[in-house]
Specification:
The protein contains 1 helix and 12 strands. It has one helix at residues 19-28, and strands at residues 2-5, 37-40, 47-54, 63-65, 69-77, 79-86, 91-96, 101-105, 109-114, 117-121, 125-132, 139-148. Strand 7 and strand 8 form a beta hairpin.
Length: 149
């Protein structure tokens, strides 16, 4: 897992050849100006989903991981608590290969995922997104890049 400021993302492009396409997408038009929806970012299957939602109680969220894609999440607006843990310490539920999604059970540590930051989740990184930060639920808007492993 990586957690850093958006302006530092270019320092990580050497980790995956498709991270260069993320930079090109971000440079083409600020994600803050793009409407919600799905955008293809290259011909190799990398794409981004820009979404906004109300953060929820941790009890209403779940731990997840992916096998085919690396999640690169950019927080555009708001703050949420992001639960994180290593997949190997979790109970695994059935994997949905079509959606590249696996629900997990276990304990997480929470990080404040703030506006202007990004997180990268590799296949071994379990994460619980969408958890409210603080006492009141808040609106968050994120760009979630799905990058082939």
């Amino acid at each position: 897992m990586i957690y850093d400021k958006i302006e530092n993302f270019k320092e990580y492009v050497r980790l995956n050849k498709h991270f260069v396409d993320v930079v090109k997408f971000l440079d083409s038009e600020p994600v803050t100006k793009r409407p919600e929806g799905r955008y293809e970012i290259n011909d190799d299957g990398a794409y981004v989903v820009i979404e906004g939602y109300q953060a929820r109680e941790a009890s209403d969220c779940f731990i997840e991981c992916h096998r085919k894609y690396i999640d690169v999440q950019f927080m555009i607006e708001g703050t949420e608590s992001m639960g994180v843990c290593h997949r190997s310490g979790c109970k695994e539920f059935p994997y949905d290969a079509g959606k590249d999604f696996q629900k997990l059970g276990g304990d997480v540590d929470f990080l404040a995922f703030r506006e202007g930051s990004f997180m990268v989740f590799f296949p071994e990184d379990a994460h619980m997104p969408g958890v409210k930060y603080g006492e009141s639920p808040g609106f968050v808007k994120k760009a979630v890049f799905k990058i082939p492993v």
